[in-house]
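Closing statement on the nicotinamide-adenine-dinucleotide sub-project.
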Amino acid sequence: MTPADPTRPHPADQTGTESHPTAPNAPAGPDAPTSTEPPVPPSLPQPQTRQVGYAVLGLGELTLDELLPAYATAGRSRLAAVVSDDRDKAVQSALAYGLSEADAYSYDTFEDLAGRDDVQAVYIVLPNALHREYAERAARIGKHVLCEKPLAGNVEDAEAIVRACRDAGVRLMTAYRCQYTPLHWRARDLAQGGALGTVKLIHSVNVQVEPDEGQWRLRRDLAGGGSLLDVGLYCINTVRFLLGTEPLEVTARTHSTPGDPRFTEVEESVSFQLEFPGGVLVSCSCSYGASHARTLDVYGAQGRLSLDPAFDYTSLRLRVHTPDTVTEHRLRETDQFTLEIDHFSACIQAGRDPFTPGEEGLQDERIMAAIYRSARERQPVRLDEHPGRDVFRGEPPERPRMERA
Ligand code: NAD
């Protein structure tokens, strides 16, 4: 860890709450006064040599809408190349972000990046089942790997990715943006710090309507699974992050509407229960057939924490309910992808593992495989026990200043 890369919570972490007495029909937080504290200076672009250069693979929705803009505001990270089989799109994207035509690669010329010393890492933003091939190819040419969630389409591929990166001596990070955002860290502090009393129950839902027949998310060979791998994963991963412990047993059911052509290869809906150490019972639901909702509620002996929305890119809301108060935690928003990418760059620069390494993504793959098995066999499935806290995670990330919005 460098002095400029503190991992301890910033003192401002402790500020930024507004409590209100509970009153019938009282609005919970939107009316809370805003902070008078000075604004946080944006992270300043650093000289090129102090930034880690990335090649981004795949120019789909996430890359174009979120990731390329995130590099423009990153401090430790720099977009150095793009990779796509659509030459026009690749060149246009490169030029739009200050690169040259020569920085646009195809999947066939990917290995040419080996000769680019200014490209230290690749960011894989391709359909899930392609993550393995490109992680292995990146590792072979000595590039660090940032891989979108889920780490792969199945456990075997996830294991292969972890192995390939370890054998090649490159760093691997699963791109779990929710483990880098200030509000999720605040929720974790509240859940683990006793503010809710002993945590008893957690409920989480992540559902959306997936309308596109024929898109890769509905094809088993490209997606690896349905709503569970794509959106249910957020429920699993965020609960594990909030508790810091690992589930012991799963019970699950899946359902797909008979005759719906979208769900001939992958499942529509999954409902699953996870039992965590200490008897914390977790109930989650995900679907490709229900109208958009992304929520997470932690029920403790003395209060309830509610994240709604819980997994969106922006405008997350965190409220804590006790018998007498509703407290809204309003924190200044920082781009989630910028935080995530800059964390990986800091780890590459410092020579340490990221907070969400490949093993973190692999553990979720194992849990999801157990969920499918439980649904198939219609009985509970025991998971391997992993006592301890944050057993699959690296050092905590640089904590962004958590000031009131
Ligand atoms: P997308 O369909 O918008 O883009 C996929 C890209 O992969 C396209 O550029 C496409 O041309 C390319 N591609 C290469 N080979 C392909 C093939 N054989 N079939 C289809 N496409 C092919 O998808 P997306 O939404 O950008 O998702 C990409 C990855 O990012 C997925 O793993 C997804 O789970 C993940 N993702 C993460 C988040 C997040 O919040 N972290 C959000 C969305 C997507």
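Residues 48-176 form a domain with the Rossmann fold fold (CATH 3.40.50.720). With this model delivered, the sub-project is considered complete and its resources will be redirected to Aim 3.
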